[in-house]
């Protein structure tokens, strides 16, 4: 047990809406957080980016709410709100003063139940333009901005739900029609495909009653969900993609397929990646940055996903003038050494202490706590996971980590994406 | 069918910023503690009123390199060992310098406060700045300079300060120094800068979080007893307003041939928190003009035109003087039209603000306060911002009380005071603003000149 367990109460309405309440009266605020079980992994070919474009339309009015009113009504009451779309889900959230809870639920129920009354071609065209600018701003007009898109396409096979990014392609965004939007809403937006979390200044009884009052009338939808895909095995033989770009220095992404999220083997892989590249005292930091000086910085992260695979990455920002291939070869040496010897006691202690602080920091705010609760309820049917996450990490042994690395982080299982600086590449040519 | 009418909203409960307990430490530092029940990760902050103007001109960036090397080796531990010591206790550590001064951030779970304070003691009193680590931080900063040049938003800010401030002002140059000055930084210079400036006198130490059953003043007092007071009087450069460039009202285009977007930074001199008429109206103006999807700018450029993912405006107070800044990016082929609209919308405050707009801004800022200051991190950050502004969080509380009395007349007066000071004349479109664009100069140059907003200069990076 982590020392400070957050209280959790859950219920399911007759229409299938899962409701979780976490009571906390420290501040007169309530975090309202909805996770809908639809993300870019549910998109069909030719319609990539639709889940995210759809999320934008959820702010453009619904049966009883005018375009833009969702933002203005809530912000006038002191709400901080937004929405995000990811591979496995779409997330809508606001943190409101206690007295504005019912307004927030009324607005959410109106758009989650009755969006289509208000969707127009004009709204679709406008938000399509906004999303294209989002893509240009966050991806196309940033150095390395499109690297992760290349990573997904390189690490995951064509046709796999994680092969394409959430932002989609310009062509597919252009192709989205009003009919697509209607069909998407009917297929995915319904109480039985949604989790509602309320965290903060309320009791479970009040939260459940309010959920029933505002969402109880929404009809369930007919869900056609395929079973989750079987686990993808590690790659057999390294694959790679090079891009020569106008970037300031070479950057190498060495990535791996991983087990799915919230499994002991995923945690073991996450620890391995932390020890190798994530910690400030990581092995790659010591080897590439401090000793060899072939990197100005290194990184290590994992991405937990549910549909048959996860993703792990070790990144190298290559020192200008140093050799990207040599740096990658040194990384592979460190991988092989780690697979041979596993983590030592100090490394394990560091990962656990670092994970605990980061996790508790994240739960310290109502909005992030509500978000984690929604996540583990929607994707793993276990809201209490938030109170046990650190215990799960602590339960992993050095042998587990070594074994997981041996299975998932073999150098020959890597998918490598390199963004190479134009001038270096020209000089080498 | 939804048949329920839109619910009424009950008025929010009264709320005040958590109260500080101040303790004067013998070495001249001030300890501020904030008990925030239920916050089990404690936030420790150290704020030092060090001015960037204290950096030697030819070694600018030295404060940044020094801050980043503080935990890279101490009298008893190598850089690697120290990183491991921090991590084994789950302590996150970071340090950096800005216009307001030097700050250090440590977060740690409650049970590890004592070891965290001992590590902070070593960072403050025993850093040795090994040659190799200083050289590494210099290299890292040089790489970062190239990355900042490559990111349009960063590049725009670099050009903005260069255009906005007088040439001999420290503020006209990047906080972390330039390629030339950073390359010249040596270990000896870092050691000397540290010895002179990272001293206890005038420093503020903040600890926020669930402090029940902890005697924080005793723990901090013992841990930091050996931190030297240093010079009693700190230099006052940090309290002086920066001089602006005589020719700051102009347009500069940083050329990015083929860019798919154009990045904007548009700014004018703004007030600091001691402005006549009170600070409270200014965040309201920022919100109404460019603080939300329904703000004046995004209502047109995003929601109507679809030119942008979002553009934000805000007043940025410094200890003396400040800025009103607007930043964001637009689709390349909408560059000229966006610039025209932005200047029009930014100047529209001259015609006044509606009661409804003002109410929205006041309500949003006032009613979000309990949530914006709920975590240990948020409380500690606000405390150190106030300390480096020569204030306490009593200002935060007083300002919130004043905010709810702000009406359209006060907002109009505040905007007029700002616009008069900046020289924004609605009869002369573009007047008063410093405008930087990062985008395809050849593509947009004629259109920008055609707007008649004043002189346009093009800058080429390579």
From TrEMBL, chain A:
Every copy of the Peptidase M16 N-terminal domain together lies at 18-156
Q: Which SUPFAM superfamilies match?
A: LuxS/MPP-like metallohydrolase
Q: Where is the Peptidase M16 C-terminal domain?
A: 176-351
Kindly list the biological process annotations in GO that this record carries. Answer: proteolysis
Looking up InterPro entries in the UniProt record yields: Metalloenz_LuxS/M16 (IPR011249), Pept_M16_N (IPR011765), Peptidase_M16 (IPR050626), Peptidase_M16_C (IPR007863)
Pfam annotation, one family: Peptidase_M16_C
Q: Which UniProt keywords apply?
A: Hydrolase, Metalloprotease, Protease, Zinc
Q: Where is the signal peptide?
A: none
GO terms for MF: metal ion binding; metallopeptidase activity
Family from the record: Belongs to the peptidase M16 family.
Name it: Peptidase M16
Organism (species): Intrasporangium chromatireducens Q5-1
TrEMBL record, chain B:
Stretches assigned to the Peptidase M16 C-terminal domain: 185-359
- GO MF annotation terms: metal ion binding; peptidase activity
**Which InterPro entries would you find in this protein's record?**
Metalloenz_LuxS/M16, MPP/UQCRC_Complex, Pept_M16_N, Peptidase_M16_C
Q: Does the keyword Endoplasmic reticulum apply?
A: no
Q: Pfam families recorded for this chain? A: Peptidase_M16, Peptidase_M16_C
Q: Which UniProt keywords apply?
A: Hydrolase, Protease
Report the record's Gene Ontology biological process terms: proteolysis
Q: Where is the Peptidase M16 N-terminal domain?
A: 54-160
Q: What is this protein called?
A: Protease
Biological source species: Intrasporangium chromatireducens Q5-1
């Amino acid at each position: 047990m982590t020392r400070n367990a957050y209280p959790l109460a859950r219920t399911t309405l007759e229409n299938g809406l899962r409701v979780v309440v976490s009571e906390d009266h420290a501040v007169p605020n309530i975090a309202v957080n909805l996770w809908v079980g639809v993300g870019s992994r549910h998109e069909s070919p030719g319609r990539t980016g639709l889940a995210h474009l759809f999320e934008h339309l959820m702010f453009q009015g619904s049966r009883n709410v005018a375009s833009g009113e969702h933002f203005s009504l809530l912000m006038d009451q002191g709400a901080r709100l937004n929405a995000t779309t990811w591979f496995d889900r779409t997330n809508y959230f606001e943190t409101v003063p206690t007295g504005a809870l019912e307004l927030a639920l009324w607005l959410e129920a109106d758009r989650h139940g009755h969006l289509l009354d208000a969707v127009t071609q004009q709204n679709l065209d406008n938000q399509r333009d906004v999303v294209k600018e989002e893509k240009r701003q966050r991806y196309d007009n940033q150095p390395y901005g499109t690297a992760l898109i290349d990573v997904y396409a390189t690490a995951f096979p064509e046709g796999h739900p994680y092969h394409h990014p959430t932002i989609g392609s310009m062509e597919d965004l252009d192709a989205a029609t009003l009919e697509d939007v209607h069909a998407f809403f009917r297929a995915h937006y319904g109480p039985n495909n949604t989790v509602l979390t309320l965290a903060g200044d309320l009791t479970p009884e009040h939260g459940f009653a309010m959920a029933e009052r505002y969402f109880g009338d929404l009809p369930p939808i007919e869900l056609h969900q395929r079973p989750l895909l079987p686990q993808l095995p590690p790659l057999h033989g390294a694959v790679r993609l090079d891009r020569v770009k106008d970037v300031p220095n070479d950057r190498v992404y060495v990535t791996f397929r991983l087990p799915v999220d919230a499994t002991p083997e995923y945690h073991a892989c996450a620890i391995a990646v932390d020890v190798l590249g994530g910690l400030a005292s990581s092995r790659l930091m010591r080897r590439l940055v401090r000793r060899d000086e072939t990197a100005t910085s290194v990184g290590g992260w994992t991405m937990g996903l549910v549909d048959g695979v996860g993703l792990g990455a070790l990144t190298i920002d290559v020192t200008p003038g140093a050799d990207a291939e040599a740096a990658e070869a040194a990384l592979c040496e460190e991988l092989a050494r780690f697979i041979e010897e596993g983590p030592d006691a100090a490394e394990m202690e560091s990962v656990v202490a670092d994970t605990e602080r980061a996790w508790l920091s994240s739960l310290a705010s109502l909005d992030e706590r509500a978000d984690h609760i929604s996540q583990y309820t929607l994707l793993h049917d276990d809201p209490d996971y938030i109170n046990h996450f650190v215990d799960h990490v602590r339960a992993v042994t050095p042998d587990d980590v070594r074994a997981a690395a041996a299975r998932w982080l073999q150098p020959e299982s890597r998918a490598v994406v390199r963004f190479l600086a134009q001038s270096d590449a020209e000089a080498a040519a | 069918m939804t048949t329920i009418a839109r619910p009424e909203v009950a008025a929010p409960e009264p709320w005040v910023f958590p109260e500080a307990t101040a303790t004067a430490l013998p070495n001249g530092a001030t300890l501020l503690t904030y008990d925030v029940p239920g916050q089990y990760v404690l936030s420790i902050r150290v704020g030092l009123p060090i001015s960037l103007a204290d950096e030697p001109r030819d070694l600018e960036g030295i404060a940044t390199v020094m801050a980043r090397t503080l935990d890279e080796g101490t009298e008893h531990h190598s850089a690697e060992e120290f990183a491991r010591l921090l991590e084994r206790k789950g302590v996150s550590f970071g340090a950096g310098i800005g216009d307001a001064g030097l700050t250090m951030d440590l977060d740690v779970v409650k049970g590890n406060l004592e070891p965290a304070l001992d590590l902070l003691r070593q960072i403050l009193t025993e850093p040795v700045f090994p040659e190799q680590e200083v050289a590494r931080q210099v290299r890292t900063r040089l790489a970062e300079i190239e990355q900042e040049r490559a990111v349009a938003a960063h590049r725009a800010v670099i050009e903005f300060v260069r255009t906005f401030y007088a040439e001999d002002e420290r503020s006209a140059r990047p906080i972390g120094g330039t390629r030339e000055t950073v390359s010249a930084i040596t270990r000896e210079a870092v050691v000397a800068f540290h010895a002179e400036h990272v001293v206890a006198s005038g420093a503020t130490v903040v600890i926020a979080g669930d402090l029940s059953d902890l005697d924080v003043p005793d723990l901090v007092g013992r841990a930091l007893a050996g931190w030297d007071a240093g010079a009693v009087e700190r230099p006052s450069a940090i309290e002086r307003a920066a001089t602006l460039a005589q020719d700051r009202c102009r347009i500069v285009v940083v050329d990015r041939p083929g860019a798919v977007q154009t990045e904007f930074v548009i700014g004018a001199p703004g007030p600091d928190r001691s402005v006549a008429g009170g600070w409270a109206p200014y965040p309201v103006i920022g919100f109404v003009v460019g603080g939300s999807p329904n703000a004046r700018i995004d209502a047109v450029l995003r929601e109507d035109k679809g030119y942008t993912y979002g553009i934000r405006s805000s007043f940025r107070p410094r200890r003396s003087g400040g800025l009103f800044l607007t930043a964001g990016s637009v689709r390349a082929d909408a560059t000229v039209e966006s610039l025209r609209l932005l200047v029009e919308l930014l100047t529209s405050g001259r015609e006044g603000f509606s009661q409804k707009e003002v109410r929205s801004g006041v309500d949003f800022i006032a009613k979000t306060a309990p949530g914006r200051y709920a975590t240990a991190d948020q409380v500690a950050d606000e405390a150190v911002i106030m300390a480096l502004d020569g204030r306490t969080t009593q200002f935060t509380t007083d300002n919130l009380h004043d905010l709810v009395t702000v009406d359209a007349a006060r907002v109009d007066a505040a905007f007029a005071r700002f616009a008069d000071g900046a020289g924004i004349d609605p009869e002369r479109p573009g007047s008063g603003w410093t405008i930087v664009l990062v985008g395809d100069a050849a593509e947009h140059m004629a259109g920008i000149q055609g707007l008649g907003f004043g002189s346009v200069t093009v800058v080429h990076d390579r």
